[in-house]
Specification:
The chain has 973 residues and is an alpha/beta fold. Among the domains are: 193 residues, 2-Layer Sandwich (Alpha-Beta Plaits); 138 residues, Rossmann fold (3-Layer(aba) Sandwich), CATH 3.40.50; 96 residues, no CATH class; 80 residues, Orthogonal Bundle (Arc Repressor Mutant, subunit A), CATH 1.10.10.10; 128 residues. Strands 1, 2, 3, 4, 5, 6, 7 and 8 form an 8-stranded mixed β-sheet that branches. A 5-stranded parallel β-sheet has the order 10-11-12-9-13, with helices on both faces. The radius of gyration is 34 Å and the shape is flat.
Length: 973
């Protein structure tokens, strides 16, 4: 190829002035043309433009409703040019502009026709800076302003507006430029709007506090000062001293100071150290990635974040928390952690702050009610006492007893609240008297225990001693619950062995009234919970009776029965209710699995199998797979039918994680075990798994036999669930092969079965598949209807995978209609749903490719390349052969459109055709026209022999060679 035909690429730092005509879109077409012509004349007439243009150091880039000027001269040139333009606009009051300036890297691409195209961070950020302004504003990035201030000949007026968040989450520091009546001196309304967090944007997950926060002003101030100096602050102290409430109050006060939010991770319900990383990732909405440790994904997500992580109740998972916190602090330099724990974490650099008791008066001191009310412990007792006894008041008659109570309890908040709760049945004097008796008993306790531990135990012992015998028995047994419980569970697990069924409700009511159990209403049902220190105290009391195994066993079998009863409902019209019920008991189910795994392995395996659909449908993929593998190992070589089912279910979860290799290995092992044990239902499901995986990987020849075999098994067993799944996978194979009539027929067959049986999820997924078929055939109206119905059902069922699929489809429809803003919104929302679940095999890859196509159409080439590379790497990693040619095709177009490399583009387009032919894939009709236009554009600029040679070289490439060539490209981010 001749040198003049080669594209040139240069990367350098340039100074960019981005200009936008305010209100351009509202002008009539002829006025738009006149305005653009006038703007070009104004700009061309400025001294800075003429000088830079004459020296060959300027590129003017039209943007549709304005222009971008790229200067390679001194940094002051764009600002001087902007002021000249503002001066000229005095003669053109009908034209209103806003301007943004930034210095940064730009890519200049010159194609074979010597047409220049500019892209890069310099252009993008200049536009984002401009977006912060209103009519008349000249805005600079802080970097540019600093350069101007260093020039002694430059005397602008610069107003520092501060930071705000602009498009795609980018933050910019904006300076307003004005001088001598030029520019707009006012603060832009656009900037003020961007500084205000958008409604609904989540910046924290802190719970609302339902009771008032009393005192602690000095402590709050001190903790905030410490957080300004340390990256790990641990609030330490005895259970009940108020660590959690204090941490939540400080965290809530600091939300605005952390650009990436304040996030609470509640560790109290967890019993397994291995879950700490999962709990943090879940709180931060960070999904797993295939074939990668979750910790690595978590570190990457937090590496550049400025956020505060609040870890609550670390003491029972101390070693795991210490290891994880140490790793995060070493790898994430801007992360801060506020922890609460009875013990220090023992991590290097940790600052330990002992939570003090609330201030109390000296015992026996004669203080007036007015003076007494200044003590925080008295304030807390009074507030909580009035909540249960509205007529209570701190008077000369009650003050001495209240002072005695608070002093005896050493100002520990939980103990004070427990004491105040007794005001519903006892006077302050009676409480003080009974509390004194409890202290007398405490004298025989452990002398080495911390005084506050003794004091809290005294309060707990005292509360426990005041319970009736049925209340005590119930209190002990309630300690086996994790994360809360309902009345039905209490009646089934706690009744018996001296506690009658008809005593349960009254005893539970008594515990609620005494603040040992909390209660809240949720969807018309009452849900109960014990505070963690109280639950731990109850566990100790239960252990003293020797009845732990009995209570735990009842807990396991109750939740096993519950899961088994709900499981069939997860395939039918009551799916949503069943999923919601299981999710509300998630902590209890995990606790039951943990206990059963150690003491009743077969029950653990039964429970895991019963939860398989729940984990799959609600996206608990990693946790579910981990429990399957753990329970399989605990069962050893027994319970072959249960193990076979567990292997197949684990394979399904691995498939939806995008871990296809392990999915195949697990499923094949499940086939063998199921066939040996005679479990035909799950042997058929295993065949269905293998067929589906092959279809998703773009291997139709391998997929068809598996799907047809699973269909035969389903028909022999009369298993409609297996039949519709097999038909659906056969439809996917036909779709990949371009046989849309057959794909539609198979899908409709499966839909008929799902309607007859009331399979909500099946109908929803099949409706989305039908939407894909109609979309591929360019039947956008029918496709949109299918996707909209799918989305409504998916949101109702809480099915994130289907939500993502429907949003992907709606995005494609909007893209085909030319509504790029709507398409981007759909794609972004879908990607968010997918990332929470770690689905790299399907929609995450597809959505990134679609976003790359969208960015390419809008000439945001840097973003297009970035997204395209993410999709290509992920699809190659998981073996998703259907997505690989799509990603390569997009990259081929970027080689031509953004980099001026037509020969490289022709070679990649040839590789795409070869790959599709080798796998029997066809291009959907909706994409044919765009694909052919792109190839035609490349062919047009290349000599015929050059195009033909490049195409042939690409078509001869293997899929691995094509991917390697692309990843090694100089355009690859």
């Amino acid at each position: 190829m001749a040198d003049e035909q080669k594209a040139k690429l240069r990367l350098e730092i340039a100074h960019v002035l981005f200009i936008d005509i305010v209100g351009y879109s509202k002008l009539r077409i002829h006025r738009q043309s006149e305005t653009l012509r006038a703007l070009n004349e104004i700009v061309s007439g400025t001294n800075q433009f003429r000088e830079a243009d004459a020296e060959g150091k300027l590129i003017r880039l039209p943007t549709g409703d304005g222009m971008a000027l790229v200067f390679r001269t001194n940094p002051e040139a764009p600002a001087q040019c902007a002021l000249e333009i503002s001066e000229a606009l005095k003669s053109h009051p009908e034209i209103q502009l806003r301007m943004g300036i930034h210095s940064g890297p730009v890519n200049e691409v010159v194609d074979v026709n010597q047409r220049a195209n500019i892209a890069g961070a310099g252009i993008n950020i200049a536009q984002r800076v401009m977006d912060c302004g209103d009519a008349g504003h000249i805005l600079l990035s802080k970097h540019v302003a600093e350069d101007l201030e260093q020039d002694e000949y430059w005397q602008p007026l610069l107003h520092d507006l501060g930071e705000c968040e602009v498009k795609h989450g980018v933050r910019v520091h904006v300076i307003n430029l004005y001088t001598d009546g030029l520019g707009n001196a006012g603060t832009p309304q656009k900037f003020q709007q961007m500084q205000v967090r958008r409604p609904g944007t989540e910046s924290n997950n802190l719970p609302a506090q339902l009771s008032s926060f009393i005192g602690r002003e000095e402590e709050i101030r001190e903790i905030k000062e410490l957080l300004a100096k340390t990256r790990l602050l641990t609030l330490s102290g005895a259970g009940g001293c108020g660590k959690t409430r204090l941490a939540l109050r400080v965290a809530a006060d600091l939300v605005s100071q952390y650009p990436d939010g304040v996030w609470l991770v509640e560790l109290a319900p967890a019993s397994d150290p291995e879950t700490v990383t999962h709990l943090i990732a879940e709180a931060l909405h960070i999904g797993e990635e295939p074939k990668r440790a979750l910790l690595e994904t978590l570190i990457d997500a937090l590496r550049s974040k400025r956020l505060l992580l609040a870890l609550d109740n670390c003491e029972h998972l101390l070693d795991a928390c210490a290891r994880l916190v140490g790793t995060l602090l070493k790898t994430c330099s801007t992360l801060q952690i506020l922890a609460t724990s009875r013990e220090a974490l023992g991590v290097a650099g940790e600052t330990i702050w002992q939570v003090p008791s609330l201030a109390t008066p000296d015992q026996g001191a004669m203080i007036s009610p007015e003076s007494l009310s200044r003590f925080e412990a008295i304030q807390l007792f009074t507030d909580r006492a009035m909540a249960v006894q509205p007529r209570f008041a701190l008077t000369s008659a009650t003050a001495p007893a209240v002072a005695q109570i608070c002093s005896r309890l050493d100002g520990i908040p939980l103990a004070i609240e427990l004491a105040a709760a007794r005001m519903s049945a006892l006077s302050a004097a009676q409480i003080a008297e009974r509390l004194q008796e409890s202290f007398d008993l405490l004298a025989h306790g452990k002398r080495t225990a911390l005084p506050r531990h003794q004091t809290l135990r005294a309060a707990m012992d005292w509360s426990y001693a005041l319970l009736t015998e049925p209340e005590r028995m119930l209190f002990q047994r309630l300690a086996v619950f994790a994360g809360g419980f309902c009345l039905e569970a209490v009646e089934n697990i706690c009744a018996g062995d001296g506690l009658q069924h008809d005593q349960i409700l009254d005893s539970l009511t008594g515990l609620v009234e005494k603040s040992l159990v909390l209660v809240r209403e949720n969807d018309g049902r009452m849900r109960y919970r014990m505070l963690e220190p109280i639950r731990q105290y109850g566990q100790e009391r239960l252990a003293e009776t020797g009845a732990v195994a009995v209570a735990r066993g009842r807990h396991v079998h109750y939740f096993l029965r519950l899961a088994q009863q709900i499981e069939p409902r997860l395939l039918g019209p009551e799916q949503q209710e069943g999923l919601d019920e299981l999710e509300s008991e998630h902590a209890n189910l995990f606790a039951a699995l943990a206990w059963a795994g150690q003491h009743e392995p077969a029950a653990a395996l039964k429970l895991a199998n019963a939860l398989g659909w729940f984990w799959e449908k609600r996206g608990f993929l990693a946790e579910g797979r981990e429990w399957f593998m753990r329970t399989i190992a605990q069962c050893g070589g027994t319970a072959a039918d249960l193990r076979g089912e567990a292997f197949v279910r684990a394979g399904r979860l691995a498939c939806w994680q995008g871990d296809y290799d392990h999915a195949v290995a697990l499923t094949e092992q499940g086939v063998r075990v199921c066939e040996e044990s005679g479990n035909r239902r799950w042997a058929g499901m295993a065949l269905n798994n293998l067929g589906g995986i092959a279809a998703y990987r773009g291997e139709p020849d391998r997929a068809v036999p598996f799907c047809e075999q699973s269909l035969v098994v389903g028909k022999e067993l009369g298993d409609d669930d297996l039949i519709w799944r097999s038909l659906a996978d056969l439809a996917v194979v036909a779709f990949v092969q371009g046989d849309y009539d057959r794909a539609r027929h198979r899908t409709e067959e499966a839909m008929q079965i799902s309607r007859q049986r009331g399979y909500q999820e099946a109908g929803m997924l099949l409706l989305r598949n039908l939407g894909d078929i109609e979309c591929a055939c360019a039947n956008t109206q029918k496709a949109a209807s299918c996707y909209e119905q799918t989305l409504a059902l998916a949101r109702k069922l809480g099915h994130k995978r289907a939500i993502a699929g429907a949003l992907d489809g709606l995005g494609k429809v909007a893209f085909d209609r030319g509504d790029y803003a709507a398409a981007r919104a759909f794609y972004k929302e879908g990607l968010q749903a997918v990332n929470e679940m770690g689905h790299k095999s399907l929609f995450a890859i597809t959505l990134n490719i679609n976003l790359a196509e969208l960015a390419a159409e809008e000439r945001e080439f840097d973003e297009a390349r970035r997204l395209c590379m993410i999709a290509l790497r992920d699809s190659h990693q998981v073996g998703d052969k259907e997505s690989i040619p799509a990603a390569l095709s997009t990259f081929a177009w970027l080689c031509f459109a953004s980099a001026g490399q037509p020969e490289a583009a022709a070679q990649l387009f040839g590789a795409v055709e070869g790959i599709r032919e080798s796998f029997g894939m066809t291009l959907p009709p909706r994409e044919v026209g765009r694909h052919q236009r792109r190839i035609g554009a490349v062919r047009e600029v290349l000599p015929q022999e050059v195009f033909t040679g490049a195409w042939a070289r690409g078509k001869a490439m293997s899929i691995d060679e094509a991917i390697a060539s692309t990843l090694e490209s100089q355009l690859c981010p």
